[in-house]
Amino acid sequence: MRNKQLIAGIGIALATLGCAQAATSTVKIVAFNDFHGNLQSPGNFGVQAGGSGTAIVSKPAGGVDMLAAYVDALKAENPNSVVVSAGDLIGASPLISAFFHDEGTIETMNRLGLEFNAVGNHEFDEGKDELLRMQAGGCHPTDSNTCKGAEVGTPVPFEGAKFKFLAANVVNTANGKTVFPAYAIKSFNTAGGKLKVGFIGLTLKETPTIVTPAGVAGLAFKDEAATVNGLVPKLRAQGVEAIVVLLHQGGSQGSAAPNFINDCSAALQDPTTSPVKGIVAQLDNAVDMVISGHTHTGFICQLPNKAGRAIPVTQASSFGRVLTDIDLTINHANGDVVAVDAHNITVDRTDANYAADAEIKGIVDGYAALVAPLAARTIGTITGPATNSANTAGEMAAGDLIADAQWQATSAAAFGGAQFALMNPGGVRNPGFTAAGYPHDVSYGEAFTVQPFGNSLVTLTLTAAQLKDVLEQQFIGGGCLLSDGVTKNNQTSQRILQISNGLHQEWSESAPACAKVRNVSLSVYDAGGNPTAADLIVSNGAVINPSQTYRVTVNNFMATGGDNYSVFTQGGDMLGGAQDIDALIDYLGRYLPPHSAYDPSAATLHAPRTVKLP
Questions:
Q1: pLDDT of the residue at 456
Q2: Pick from 320, 314, 316: nearest CA to 347
Q3: For residue 431, what is the DSSP state?
Q4: What is the pTM (predicted TM-score) of this model?
Q5: CA 202, CA 341: separation in Å to the nearest integer?
Q6: In a 3-state reduction of DSSP, which class is residue 195?
Q7: pLDDT on residue 218
Q8: Phi/psi of residue 606, each to 5°?
Q9: What is the 3-state secondary structure (H, E, C) of 519-532?
Q10: Buried b vs exposed e over 116-151: b needs ≥16 C-beta within 10 Å?
Q11: Between vectors from CA 503 to CA 501 and to CA 509, what angle results, nearest 5°?
C-alpha cells in the first residue's frame, strides 16, 4: 500500500535490556482523535509532505466514508489490529451530526470498526446522561430529531456504541466509581502465541473549566498521571505488560512546523506550551506510549517519562483528516514492547488507491438528505472572510460578528437591556465565516459549524469592578486575587473575550496577573447609532466608579463560570434569552438583499475593540 517510513527516534529498540533475541510479534494500532462528528469532509487539508520547511500540499481530506477505507487498508496489513480514538469523537459537531445528537457519528464509527474511545471534554456537552445513552443506545428522551434509522439505514431504536468509552479519571462524586471503564485489555492471537495490550482512557482534568457546569455536575476529574500510575499494578496483575494511554490532552506545534504532521517541534517539548509533556513526565515507566488529542495537532514525538526514558507520544490532527499508523513490536517472553513505529498519514480523498466505504457513505448521505433543507437555507451575505483566527491582541473577525449579534438580540429593554456582549473565544469554532469567493451567501449549516453548542443567551448585571475582574480572567491568573480580595483568578490559559461594538479594552502583556487590564471604555451612541462619547470605565488600571452597573450579555456556558470566567456567577438580575444560533441568524438576516452585505472589515465603529500594550 505504501512504503513504511520509520520516523527518527520513534523505533525504540530495547536490545540493551537483553530481550532482542526473543521471538516477537507486531500489533497494529490505528488511531485518530477529535473527530467532532465530521461525517463529511471538512474540506482541504494542507501538509508539508516533504517535511518541515517544504511546500504545503493541500488536498480534500477526511469524511468518515474515506476514513473507513484508510482504516481497512491499514488493518489489512496486519490481522492483529485495533482502532482507537483519543476523545472528542462527538460534540462541537457540524449540523449533519449535531442535529441528530451525534447518533450518526456513533453508527458510522460502529461500522468503521472503532473499538476504544477515551472520553474527551466535548463528549460531556450534553451531560453525563446523554453520554451514557450514546453508549447504551435508545432514543433521545425529549427531541424528535433522534432514532432516524429507518431513513438512513441503521437499526431503530438508535443502537448505541458497539465500542467502549473509557474514562479512568472521571468519577461520580456520590459513589467514587468511574462513569465508564478505566481501561480495556485486548488479546491478540499471534503466530507466536497470545499477546495482551492494555488501553487506559483519560479525559483532561480541566474539563470542568471548559464545559457547561451542568454537563459535569456530580463528577470529579482526577489527575491524569496519578490515575494512570495507580492502574499499572492492576494491569500487570492481569498479565499486561504492554500499556498504551489514550489521553485527551496534547500540545501545539507552534509556528515552527504547523503543517508537518510527523514533526515534533520545540513547542511540543516545552512544558509551558505542551501540557502533554508535563503529564508524560509523571508517567510510570511501565507505560509504552501515549496517543493524545484535544489540541487538534498532528505530531509524532518522543517525550521523557518519570524515569527519564523517552516514549512515543502521537496525535492525528482533527476532524478525521489524519490517521496515526502505529506498529508495536512485543516480546513473547515477557510481554514487553520492544519497538514502536508511528507515522501520521493524511486521509486523502483524491487517492485512487482508496474507495470510500459504500455502507457508511449511504448512512451519511441519508443524514445529509434529512438535514439538507435546513442546512442550505441562506441566512445572510458577507463581503469577505470573518475567520476565527485571532490577531496579536486576541480579537477575531468572527468573534466580533457573534458578539454583535448577541448584543443586538438583547439590547432592547424587554430582552435584557444589554449595553454590550462578551463571547468566549473557544465558542467561535473553526473556520469562522469563509468562502472561495465573495460576496458569499452564508448558509445555516455554515453558521451552525461556527456556533454548534446550542447555548442560550443570558443578560446579567455587573458592577464596573466586576467587569474589570472578569476581563482580568482573560489571562492566566495562577490564583491571584481580584478586586474583592477573595475571588481568585484561576485561568489556566489566555482566553481573550470577543467583545461587541462600542466596548474597547486595552491590556498589557508585561503587567502582572490580575493587573493586565489597563483601559476600558464604552461608547455612548446618538439616535442615529453613531458613537458620540466614551464612558471611561477603567483608566490606567484603576476603576473609575467601581459601583457603576452595566447590563452584559453572555452565553449560559459563561454565565455559569465556564472557561474559568467565575466572576460572571456573581452577576445579578439574570434574564434568559434566545439560543446563540438564533441570535446570529437574526443579525445576519439584516444583511440579505435588498440590504447591503455584511462587511467584516468595516464592522466595527470603535476599531479595534481589543488592543495589546507592551
A1: 84
A2: 320
A3: T
A4: 0.83
A5: 23
A6: strand
A7: 95
A8: -135, 60
A9: EEEEEEECCCCCEE
A10: bbbbbbbbbbbbbebbebbbebebbeeeeebbbbee
A11: 120
The partner residues of 84 in beta bridges, in order of sequence, read: 31, 116
Q: Distance (Å, rounded) from C-alpha 546 to C-alpha 106? A: 51
Q: Enumerate the β-bridge partners of residue 142.
A: none
Q: How far apart are alpha carbons 79 and 336 in whole angstroms? A: 20
* Distance, CA of 431 to CA of 428 (rounded, Å): 9
- How far apart (Å, rounded) are the C-alpha atoms in residues 546 and 552? 16
Query: Taking Cα atoms as reference points, which of 245, 100, 109, 219 lies closest to residue 164?
Result: 109
3-state secondary structure (DSSP) of residue 303: strand
Q: Which three cell numbers stand for residue 153?
A: 439505514
With 0-12 / 13-18 / 19 or more C-beta atoms within 10 angstroms meaning exposed / middle / buried, residue 364 is: buried
All three cell numbers of 358, joined, read 459504500
Spatial strand order of the sheet with 287-292 comes to: 183-190, 193-203, 242-248, 287-292, 310-316, 298-304
CB-count burial class (<10 Å; 0-12, 13-18, 19+) for 306: middle
Tell me the C-alpha to C-alpha distance, in Å, between residue 8 and each of 262, 330, 373, 436. 10, 20, 50, 38
pLDDT confidence of residue 253 = 80
Instruction: Please count the CA atoms within 13 angstroms of the CA of 305 that sit on its side-chain side.
Output: 19
Q: Which letter does DSSP use for residue 96 in this model?
A: H
Cell triple for 517 = 487590564
Query: Grid coordinates representing 220?
Result: 470529579
What 3 state SS string does 527-589 have? CCCCEEEEEEEEECCEECCCCCEEEEEEEHHHHCCHHHCHHHHHCEEEEEEEEHHHHHHHHHH
421 or 502: whose pLDDT is higher? 421
φ, ψ (nearest 5 deg) of residue 148: -95, 25
Residues 248 and 290: their CA atoms lie apart, in Å, by 10
3-state secondary structure 347-400: CECCCCCCCCCHHHHHHHHHHHHHHHHHHHCEEEEECCCEECCCCCCCCCHHHH
pLDDT of residue 492: 85
Mean pLDDT of 47-74: 88
CA atoms within 13 A on the CB side of 38: 23
Amino acid making up residue 152: V
CA atoms within 13 A on the CB side of 364: 23
pLDDT tens, residue by residue, 375-385 = 999 999 999 99
Distance, CA of 560 to CA of 568 (rounded, Å):
7
CA 601/CA 508 separation, integer angstroms: 25
- Cβ-based neighbour number of residue 406 at 10 Å: 30
Cα–Cα separations (whole angstroms), residue 546 to 25, 78, 460, 506: 69, 67, 17, 18
Q: Are strands 498-499 and 183-190 parallel, antiparallel or unpaired?
A: unpaired
Helix (H) or strand (E) holding 97: helix 95-98
C-alpha distances (whole Å) from 472 to each of 483, 516, 534, 540 are 10, 6, 21, 14
Q: Which of 180-189, 249-258, 554-563, 574-583 has the lowest mean pLDDT?
A: 249-258
Give the other-Cβ count within 10 Å of 383's Cβ: 16
DSSP 230-264: HHHHHHHHTT--EEEEEEE-----TTTSTT-TT--
User: For the segment 3-59, what is each residue's pLDDT rounded down to a tens digit?
Assistant: 333 333 333 333 333 344 459 999 999 999 999 999 999 989 988 777 667 778 889
Maximum Cα–Cα distance for the chain, whole Å?
A: 85
